[in-house]
């Protein structure tokens, strides 16, 4: 018997292809890429697995209703008519998240309010008592998405965004989002088959995500809860089997993952977060200024880092990015160096010709993930990398 149903995994701009690949590798059916989303099919166990294992998903939602809507009266009517008793009871708390992209509906909070009114009015009519709203810790989180005249109603199986992995308790200024970090690592081709370095590691997010990828550890194994755990049909035994089965697929890692930061406070925070993720045996963090270092390993090195933003450089952007290029050229032969920056103007000061540029977004900032290939002991490489 086929118990599969449609789900949608939300993601960041530019990550649709790698999320689709993740889903196929997990065993999803009918995978279709969208804009900042990928739809797929699976059963309840797969929904649990998707939340637990996907590295580049922000949320996993389960569509339960769809209709055409042109005004608030139609919205209220359709929501009121739906069989909410299959998902809610008068004792259940709920919350509504709304996204609108429509000429007819311009205020997401108003749509949420109208949806809430329809749901509670329905329960008052049928049960004489209404369920309460709890925006912080609801038993059921409902997702409303209106695009033009099409409305999708879904259940949010994740709850808090899946970038809340559960291991990061200490952060620096503007820490990189865990989903963004994992996606950038996958875009860079990181597969755990060589040594890894983040030379400006901050609170250690790249290091932690790199180790989890290398060891095939489920992305959200350290997370305290998912929204589906509060659903009436939650199957604890099935979920435990999914967790056990996913952990059996972890693998050993035979290389080194190293992080540098010149700030002692950042090193301590990174070490704390890495410890929270139970990855201290795989990752070493040292207090060092990248610009005074050189490659310490033989063989290939994979480097990914997020240089500090321009506003934190005391206006020494040109010097800073020039130093990045000089350090790579002088000290890091045999290295694939990837960096992300929203300061597109600053890249010219690196003095190296990037072999790849990938458009991504860091929060709301349009950015570039840039690759520099530092060849081993070749004069030709110096000319290839020179602007």
Q: What are its keywords?
A:
387 residues; VC0802-like; Rossmann fold; seven-stranded mixed sheet
Please outline what is shown here.
With 387 residues, the chain is an alpha/beta fold. Helices cover 30% and strands 24% of the residues.
In words, what does this structure look like?
The protein is an alpha/beta fold. The protein has two domains: 5-156, VC0802-like (2-Layer Sandwich); 178-219 and 248-384, Vaccinia Virus protein VP39 (Rossmann fold, 3-Layer(aba) Sandwich), CATH 3.40.50.150. Helices cover 30% and strands 24% of the residues. It contains ten helices and 14 strands. A seven-stranded mixed β-sheet has the order 2-3-1-4-7-6-5. Helix 3 packs parallel to helix 4 (108-127). Residues 379-383 have low confidence and may be disordered.
Give the distance, in angstroms, between the N- and C-terminal Cα atoms: 61 Å
| The CATH fourth-level homologous superfamily of the largest domain | Vaccinia Virus protein VP39
Strand percentage lies at: 15-25%
Task: Give the helix proportion (percent range).
Answer: 25-40%
Largest sheet: 7 strands, mixed
Helix count, DSSP H or I runs of 4 or more residues: 10
Please, what is the average pLDDT?
Answer: 92
Strand order of the largest sheet: 2-3-1-4-7-6-5
Measured on Cα atoms, how large is the radius of gyration? 24 Å
The outline comes out as elongated
Structural class: alpha/beta
Protein topology:
Layout lengths: L4 E6 L5 H11 L2 E5 L3 E6 L1 H10 L5 E10 L3 H10 L12 E8 L6 H20 L12 E8 L2 E7 L21 H10 L7 E4 L6 H10 L21 H12 L9 E5 L2 H13 L6 E5 L13 E5 L11 H15 L3 E7 L14 E7 L2 E10 L4 H6 L3
Parallel strand pairs: 5-6, 8-9, 8-11, 9-10, 11-12
Antiparallel strand pairs: 1-3, 1-4, 2-3, 4-7, 6-7, 12-14, 13-14
């Amino acid at each position: 018997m086929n118990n599969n149903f449609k789900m949608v995994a939300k993601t960041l701009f530019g990550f649709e292809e790698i999320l689709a690949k993740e889903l196929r590798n997990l065993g999803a059916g009918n995978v279709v890429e969208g804009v900042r989303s990928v739809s797929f099919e699976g059963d309840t166990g797969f929904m649990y697995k998707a939340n637990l294992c996907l590295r580049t998903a922000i949320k996993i939602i389960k569509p339960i209703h769809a209709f055409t809507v042109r005004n608030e009266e139609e919205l209220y009517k359709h929501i009121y008519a739906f069989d909410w008793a299959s998902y809610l009871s008068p004792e259940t708390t709920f919350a509504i998240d709304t996204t609108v992209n429509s000429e007819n509906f311009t205020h997401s909070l108003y749509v949420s309010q109208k949806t809430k009114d329809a749901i509670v009015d329905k329960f008052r009519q049928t049960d004489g008592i209404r369920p309460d709203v709890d925006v912080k810790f609801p038993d059921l989180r409902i997702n409303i998405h209106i695009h033009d005249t099409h409305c999708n109603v879904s259940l949010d199986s994740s709850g808090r965004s899946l970038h809340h992995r559960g291991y990061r308790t200490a952060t620096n200024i503007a820490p990189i989002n865990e989903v963004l970090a994992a996606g950038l690592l996958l875009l860079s081709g990181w597969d755990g088959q060589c040594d890894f370095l983040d030379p400006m590691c901050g609170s250690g997010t790249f290091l932690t995500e790199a180790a989890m990828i290398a060891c095939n550890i489920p992305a959200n194994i350290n997370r305290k809860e998912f929204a589906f755990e509060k659903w009436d049909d939650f199957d604890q035994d099935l979920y435990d089997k999914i967790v056990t089965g996913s952990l059996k697929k972890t693998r050993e890692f035979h290389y080194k993952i190293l992080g540098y930061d010149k700030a002692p406070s950042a090193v301590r925070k990174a070490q704390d977060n890495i410890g929270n993720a139970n990855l201290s045996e795989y990752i070493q963090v040292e207090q060092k200024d990248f610009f005074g270092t050189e490659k310490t390993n033989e063989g290939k090195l994979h480097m990914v880092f997020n240089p500090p933003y321009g506003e934190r450089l005391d206006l020494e952007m040109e010097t800073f990015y020039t130093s990045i290029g000089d350090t790579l050229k002088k000290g890091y032969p045999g290295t694939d160096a990837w960096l992300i920056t929203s300061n597109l103007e600053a890249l010219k000061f690196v003095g190296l010709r990037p072999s790849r540029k990938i458009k991504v977004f860091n929060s709301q900032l349009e950015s570039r993930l840039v690759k520099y290939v530092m060849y081993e002991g070749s004069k030709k490489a110096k000319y290839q990398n020179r602007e």
